[in-house]
């Protein structure tokens, strides 16, 4: 067969088949190249940055002999009984006053429960180490940002100012998640949920947290370089950030102008209004950025999820069993698009 005949045949075949033919024709190198092209290198770069921050944290803590102590302190903050109680009570409220009525064992709930397990086993230690590593990197390379004069401020002023600044950094990280394609690949999993519930707070790719922890460490190192934030403050902050995914129509009334409510955050999860309501706990950053859209009590309950289902979801008729699907959802950002 001549070269022009091969080309004519290739033109009639689907791209995947011609790609395999070309890969096979190129021998082992061609196969390797074809496999390599199926990967998203920018996602591996995010994984590499995360690994570097973790490395800094682990080596630092091992040198100080504090690795286990810090990990258990992280568990106490991020899996506190207060948070567990909040999830249980919110779950009960969701049964009584649901925004969308659905079965307890709806596929979305079961899938998000798998992410709760992943959160407890993998994400909590990861978050703890990310915050330690980010703080160590910033203090080590940009000690000039430490504002020593704030150490004379009373705790009742310094802690709230730091938490508000931290929330601003989290808003910025969330904005970046939506603005930059390489970060969106990891954030999309969180937005893919079509059956929001309090458990959706834990439906996140572990590598989605890196930007947030790197940015949030900046105000903490700047304002409180020597004093740790009391664990209970972090736990309350996490509780407020968890409640927003509840399957409830709550707007928080007048407080909802300042605090992110379930109804407010639900608008961010709608397929067509993701550019609004990026706030994590406070709405002020959205107001300042002109991205706040406050819900009203009379609003209907709109759909959530992503148009075209770019991330495999459990609501799809052909979805794999929960754990297998979760593996696919975690791998998805590493596949090349297009
Ligand atoms: Zn988002
Ligand atoms: Zn969300």
Could you outline the blueprint of secondary structure elements for this entry?
Blueprint: H1 3-12, H2 15-25, H3 27-37, H4 41-64, H5 67-78, H6 81-96, H7 107-141, H8 155-179, H9 181-191, H10 209-223, H11 231-243, H12 262-269, H13 284-289, H14 322-331
The chain binds zinc ion (ZN) (2 copies).
One zinc ion (ZN) binds at residues 190, 245, 265, 269.
Q: Estimate what percentage of residues fall within beta strands.
A: under 5%
Low-confidence stretches: 6-19
Computed over alpha carbons, the radius of gyration is: 23 Å
Binned, the helix content reads 55-70%
Order of helices and strands: HHHHHHHHHHHHHH
* Structural shape: globular
Structural class: mainly alpha
Average pLDDT: 90
Largest sheet report: none
Which molecules are bound in this entry? zinc ion
Number of strands: 0
Treating each run of at least 4 consecutive H or I residues as one helix, how many helices?
14
Distance between the termini: 31 Å
Number of domains: 2
């Amino acid at each position: 067969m001549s070269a022009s005949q091969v080309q004519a045949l290739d033109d009639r075949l689907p791209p995947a088949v011609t790609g395999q033919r070309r890969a096979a024709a190129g021998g082992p190198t061609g196969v390797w190249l074809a496999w390599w092209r199926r990967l998203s290198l920018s996602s591996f770069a995010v994984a590499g940055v995360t690994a570097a921050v973790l490395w800094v944290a682990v080596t630092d803590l091992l040198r100080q002999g504090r690795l286990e102590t810090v990990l258990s302190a992280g568990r106490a903050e991020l899996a506190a009984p207060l948070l567990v109680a909040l999830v249980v009570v919110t779950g009960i409220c969701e049964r009584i006053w649901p925004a969308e009525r659905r079965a307890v064992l709806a596929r979305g709930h079961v899938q998000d429960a798998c992410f709760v397990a992943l959160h407890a086993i993998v994400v909590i230690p990861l978050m703890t180490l990310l915050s330690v590593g980010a703080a160590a990197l910033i203090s080590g390379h940009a000690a000039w940002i430490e504002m020593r004069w704030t150490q004379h401020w009373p705790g009742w002023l310094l802690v709230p100012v730091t938490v508000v600044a931290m929330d601003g950094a989290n808003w910025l990280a969330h904005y970046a998640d939506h603005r930059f394609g390489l970060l969106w690949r990891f954030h999309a999993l969180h937005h893919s949920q079509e059956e929001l519930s309090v458990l959706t707070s834990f439906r996140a790719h572990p590598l989605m947290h890196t930007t947030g922890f790197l940015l949030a460490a900046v105000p903490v190192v700047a304002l409180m370089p020597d004093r740790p934030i009391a664990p209970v403050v972090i736990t309350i902050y996490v509780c407020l950030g968890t409640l927003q995914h509840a399957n409830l129509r709550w707007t928080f009334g007048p407080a909802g102008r300042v605090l992110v409510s379930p109804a407010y955050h639900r608008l961010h999860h709608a397929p067509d209004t993701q550019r609004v309501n990026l706030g994590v706990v406070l709405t002020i950053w959205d107001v300042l950025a002109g991205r706040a859209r406050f819900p009203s009590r009379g609003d209907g309950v709109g759909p959530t999820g992503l148009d075209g289902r770019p991330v495999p979801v459990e609501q799809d008729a052909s979805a794999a069993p929960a754990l297998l699907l979760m593996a696919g959802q975690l791998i998805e950002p590493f596949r090349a698009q297009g």
